[in-house]
Amino acid sequence: MKVLIKLKYQILLIPLTYVFTCVFAAINYTYWKEKRIAAKMILLAILIGTICYIFVPTIAIKLNMTTDFFDSNLYYYLISVLASIYFINHQKEYIKQHVKEDNKLR
User: Fold this and answer.
1) What kind and span of H or E run contains 93?
2) N or C: which end of the chain has fewer CB within 10 A?
């Protein structure tokens, strides 16, 4: 199975933000003619941003959790790294599954 944007290059983007790995995952899925999965990845990225960056800090403020953790760069970086790892692993599993199916057909 040919990969348009290799996973090893996506791993290098983990320190930046999860948006890059999400977009590159969507590009790979579109290249593999899996537009439904690509749309799912984009929607998941929007949900991660909405829930983790808007709702969770707002709820923490309303519950009087006055720690600055939810406003810190560490919180945003942690969410971004975990989301990036999820997007990369999702592609790995997809590739692994389809390589097995291709081998069975031969």
Assistant:
1) helix 73-105
2) C
